[in-house]
Amino acid sequence: MTPRPQFDATYIEAELQELGAVLNSDVTAFLIGGGAMSFRGLKDTTKDIDLVVTTEAEFDRLLAALDERGYEKVSELGETYQQLGARLCVENTDGCRIDVFNRQVANKLIFSDGMQQRSEEYLESSELTVELTALEDIFLFKTVAKRPDDIDDMNTLVQTNLDFDAVRSEVAEQIELLSGKRFTTHIRESLDELYEQYEIQTPFEDVIDEYYAQYMDELEVRLVLSEEEPMSVEAIAEERGLEQSHVVEQLEQLEAYGYVEQTDSGFVDTGKLDAFKE
After folding, report:
1. Which residues form the DUF6036 domain (predicted)?
2. How far apart are CA 260 and CA 146, in angstroms?
3. Pairing of strands 45-46, 7-8
4. How do the domains of the chain map onto residue ranges?
5. pTM for the structure as a whole
6. CATH topology identical between 1-133 and 135-278
7. Which of 21, 41, 122, 225 would you call most buried, defined as having the most Cβ atoms within 10 angstroms of its Cβ?
8. Strand-pair category, 128-132 with 27-32
């Protein structure tokens, strides 16, 4: 298979300037991934330009502008790109690919208000304003994206003295936005890989371990429930060999996120899934 071409910061900036020139209305797009790292001198080149918008109207405007610039939709995407979950994936004649996300990135994390506030304006071209996503948030995205180069990029990002207090706060925010802690299991796996490959440990691993343990405790209780047959606290505790007080604590958490519901006869599973996709 022929390797896809790589593009440097100069090329990416020129493409974004041209894109802004054909927009008819204002669009603010947030640059994440390799493109944002290239502009900060952390990567020489990247294969893709990953842009995030936060409204449907801006998505539609950007789609029209890309069409006018001659970008064509990529119809056959590899498994990695299918997992990426971009709302739009287009490519120009040079082979430069632009992935556009609307609010949720890679079917994983939500581009939160905090992420928007931490971003820094990089360029303004006619109707297009491009902001660089904070390195802390790029690091967090890479912990869940599970793409081939993400662990290498995480290693690079750690060397920049990331503000892990901001990362901790964003993890807590994502739990609320995604209605669950399942994504922290993927963060834990990536942190393990980071240590295996580079012997690097990060200052927020204790927080991730705590959330991971909470998720597993909640899952242990949820897995015995069905959507049809209610179970009492006593029955759940007996089934799992747990203290009733522990079961009550997990049920309260599950009920808060809408995963279980209490009926007159006991607790049932609602069948709800969180917003994080594998």
Report:
1. 24-179
2. 30
3. antiparallel
4. 1-133, 135-278
5. 0.91
6. no
7. 225
8. parallel
Burial class (CB in 10 A: 0-12, 13-18, 19+), 245: exposed
Residue given tokens 């809408």 in the structure block: 258
Please give the backbone phi and psi of residue 275, each rounded to the nearest 5 degrees, phi first.
-85, 0
Q: Tell me which residue has tokens 């371990």.
A: 209
CA 93 to chain centre: 29
| Three-state DSSP class for residue 261 | strand
Q: Tell me the pLDDT of the chain (278 aa) as tens digits.
A: 567 899 999 999 999 999 999 999 999 999 998 899 999 999 999 988 999 999 999 999 999 999 999 999 987 655 554 444 467 899 999 999 999 999 998 889 999 999 999 999 999 988 999 999 999 999 999 999 888 889 999 999 999 999 999 999 999 999 999 999 999 999 999 999 999 999 999 999 999 999 999 999 999 999 999 999 999 999 999 999 999 999 999 999 999 999 999 999 999 999 999 999 87
Asked whether the beta carbons of 116 and 139 are under 8 A apart, the reply is no
Cα 111 from Cα 27, distance rounded (Å): 16
Query: Is 1.25.40 the CATH classification of the domain at 1-133?
Result: no
Closest CA to 201 of 165, 158, 148: 158
In b/e form, how buried is each residue of 181-213, taking b as 16+ CB within 10 angstroms? Answer: bbbbbbbbebbeebeeeeeeebebbebbeebbe
Our CA angle for 33, 142, 276, nearest 5°, is 110
Q: Write the DSSP symbol of residue 160.
A: T
